[in-house]
Write a structure and sequence with these properties.
The chain is α+β, with helices and mostly antiparallel strands. Helices cover 48% and strands 19% of the residues. The chain starts with a helix and ends with a helix.
């Protein structure tokens, strides 16, 4: 507390606050004490009036004298008040404290007079009957023609006692509030004194020549916080002015570092004043070499670049600006813009050259030029043919109708080619610009493959090609635009059919791509052919517009050169991936990875059960583990397990599945309580299917035990293969059914 009084200003503030608290305390206490007494008296009077009216109804009019005294006395004991019944002439009819017969006439009592005049009256006075002060409340009771006064009296000492108790409670509350207010004031003034001391300390340091750095922590919004913020800002401005030159240099360096353009500043003699990192990379300056002050000849020996920099130094910027494009080695193009560098006196002291790398723009211009040239060439070829035959038909029509039909057929063929080219160009343009909206929805892969292959049945039969599809069971639907996906695979199958010789094969395969947990589900569709293949150096350019490996053959087959470009953009629009593999004289495979519908799968625990667990249930487990993609848990077991049959292992290897690492198990090795689906495999008349007491869903596959087959080795192997194929078909059907249940 001693620290608070060290500040005379704070001390004066605190004394003023203390005086105000004391004055408010005294005024409020005395005013509230009188107000409490009035409020209590008013409340008591209202209650006594209500009780008077209730008593008036309980006291019979015909009673007076001693009987009425007895009745009022009993009621008075219950209510804690004095009860007096007075006639209109002032005669006392009954009283709870004294005998009515001995009491004086009450006609002159103030409360009686007021009750007779207004219907109710009250008074506080000394009672001559009981000898102490009372608070009286009287009402006029009317019951037809009969009237009387009912008066209640309450000792004034009790009122004083209760109001005094309320006054003491009020006094304690005021004292507590005042003490709390003084404590808060003390804390506030103590905090205010510390803040004032900080201001004094700041002014002392500034007066001593030291500029504090963020001396005040400004978190509030009052006037002192505003003053502190202003003082902090003043300190920052003073420091900024002192360090202005260093800050400006750092700012300029930062701008140069952040610019993607190359910036070079030269003095009038062509020496380097400033060069940023991008310019160093452009001029291929070795790391660590300081080129500050170097001449332009030391910086670059490229004749075009030297000529540009000399021109920029000699140009009169007052009359015109300087802008030029220059090509360096390896197809690098730069646009050079230059302005003059002036000092504080507005005198020219050098030149600023900004180099914009426009290599990509030039490349795109070349691509555009090539595209226009390719389109012009592609359009010119069929148009030339159409024009030639049309002119022939118009000017020198052939006499032979067969020649006329031949000319018209050529015109029709070239017209169709023009139509395909136009449609492909429009489609490609829409895909590249993003104007072609995709109607994304689940696309059934089997249906998509069937629709695509139907287009080529006749063409494949005409060329004696084998056209087939292999769709992995249980694949989720693709998420994409059905029409665009159909167009994608029609283009791929069309290429495969065109470039596969007679007797070859074209396949469309679909399989799930293993994905890490949390990764999006993808499906790979592959189009394979047995054509002549594509050279490795041509594969990266296959998706370029109008690019052809064999131009003459492509035009002969009616291709526009845009098919794979359209394929690439459709795949990109679906967030997919494209990969092309080819081996010369063996064929080409195009892999397309597309997103599938993300499905919540219903995982099942499946148990394949037979007697020995050596052949059928082992093969079923092998196929199910290979084909189940929905996270199903697969088990096999036998009631009397035997070692896995070697011929079962052999025929499963023929199907590409190794079950040699599977072991024969009994029911004790399987968590029977968690099994959702129990499948029993038995079929011979002499064989009894095992009975297992389980609540799981059950199914039965009546398959013979191949281990019981008799005959030569080829016959026994055939029995094993037949059972294997039957099991594979049933497992595929089971997994498809489970997938449909979960979708």
């Amino acid at each position: 507390m001693k620290r608070l009084w060290n500040s005379s200003l704070i001390f004066k503030f605190f004394l003023s606050y203390l005086a105000i608290i004391a004055l408010l305390f005294a005024s409020f206490y005395f005013y509230s004490e009188a107000l409490l007494k009035d409020l209590y008296t008013s409340s008591l009077g209202a209650r006594m009036e209500r009780e008077s009216r209730l008593l008036a109804k309980a006291l019979p009019f015909q009673l007076e004298g001693a009987p009425l005294d007895v009745l009022t006395r009993s009621l008075s004991d219950e209510l804690g008040v004095r009860i007096t019944i007075v006639a209109l002439d002032g005669r006392v009819l009954g009283d709870s404290a004294e005998s009515a017969e001995g009491m004086e006439n009450h006609a002159g009592r103030p409360e009686i007079v007021e009750a007779l005049a207004k219907g109710s009256g009250s008074a506080i006075r000394h009672s001559t009957t009981v000898g102490y002060d009372l608070f009286y409340r009287a009402i006029l009771q009317n019951e037809g023609s009969r009237k009387r006064i009912v008066r209640l009296a309450f000792p004034l000492a009790d009122i004083e006692k209760r109001t005094s108790a309320l006054g003491r409670a009020l006094l304690m509350g005021l004292l507590t509030a005042s003490a709390l207010a003084l404590l808060i004031a003390y804390v506030f003034f103590r905090h205010f004194g510390r803040r004032l001391g900080r201001l004094v300390e700041f002014s002392r340091q500034v007066a001593g020549g030291t500029i504090p750095h963020d001396f005040f922590s400004t978190t509030g919004r009052d006037e002192i916080n505003l003053l502190e913020r202003h003082l902090n800002e003043m300190g920052r401005r003073l420091r900024d002015h002192i360090q202005q030159i260093v800050a400006e240099k750092e700012k300029a360096d930062s701008i140069l570092r952040c610019m993607i353009e190359s910036v070079l500043v030269l003095d009038p003699k062509g020496r380097v004043l400033v060069i940023n990192e991008q310019a160093k990379r452009m001029f291929q300056v070795p790391p660590g070499r300081d080129v500050q002050g170097a001449s332009i000849a030391e910086l670059s020996r490229h004749p075009e670049m030297l000529a540009v920099m000399r021109e920029a130094l000699e140009v009169e910027f007052a009359n015109r600006g300087y802008s030029k494009e220059v090509e360096l080695d390896e197809g690098r193009w730069f646009s050079v813009n230059a302005v003059s560098l002036k000092d504080g006196a507005q005198e020219v002291c050098g030149s600023i050259l900004v180099f914009h790398d426009i290599s990509e723009i030039k490349r795109l211009e070349m691509v555009r030029s090539d595209f226009v040239a390719n389109v012009s060439h592609e359009l010119r070829t069929p148009l030339t043919a159409i024009r030639g035959y049309v002119e022939t038909l118009l000017r020198t029509p052939p006499d032979d109708p067969a020649d006329t039909r031949h000319f018209l057929a050529v015109i029709e063929r070239n017209t169709e080619r023009l139509s395909r080219l136009t449609e492909d160009l429009l489609t490609l343009s829409d895909l590249e610009s993003g104007k072609l909206p995709l109607a994304r929805r689940p696309v059934d892969i089997a249906q998509l493959a069937q629709r695509v292959l139907e287009v080529f049945w006749n063409q494949a039969n005409a060329k004696n090609l084998e056209l087939n599809k292999q769709i992995e069971p249980g694949l989720p639907p693709l998420l994409g635009d059905f029409d665009r996906l159909q167009q994608l695979f029609i283009n791929l199958i069309d290429n495969a059919v065109k470039y596969t010789p007679s007797g070859g094969k074209v396949s469309l395969k679909a399989a799930r791509i293993p994905a890490a947990p949390g990764a999006p589900l993808m499906v790979q569709l592959s189009v394979s052919d047995t054509g002549s293949g594509i050279p490795a150096n041509d594969i990266p350019r296959l998706t370029e517009r109008f690019y052809r490996v064999d131009k003459a053959r492509s035009r002969e087959l009616g291709g526009t050169g845009l098919g794979l470009a359209i394929v690439k953009h459709i795949i990109q629009a679906h967030q997919g991936k494209l990969k092309i593999e080819s081996v010369m004289q063996k064929g080409t495979t195009v892999h397309v990875q597309l997103p599938a519908v993300q499905q919540e799968t219903d995982h099942k625990n499946i148990l394949f059960l037979c007697t020995g667990n050596s052949c059928r249930s082992q093969m079923a487990e092998g196929f199910a583990r290979r084909l189940a993609v929905n996270g199903h848990r697969i088990y096999s077991a036998g009631t009397a397990p035997k070692p896995v049959h070697p011929l079962a292992v052999e025929v499963m290897k023929e199907a590409g599945i190794d079950i040699s690492n599977q072991s024969s198990k009994g029911l004790d090795a399987v968590p029977l309580d968690s099994v959702d689906l129990l499948i029993t495999l038995c079929g011979d008349a002499a064989e009894t299917c095992p009975a297992v007491p389980m609540d799981a869903r059950r199914d039965h596959w009546p398959l013979p035990d191949p281990a019981l087959a008799r005959g030569d080795e080829e016959h026994i192997l055939k029995v094993f293969r037949d059972v294997r194929d039957a099991i594979r078909a049933r497992v595929e059907g089971l997994l498809i059914a489970l997938a449909n249940e979960g979708s």
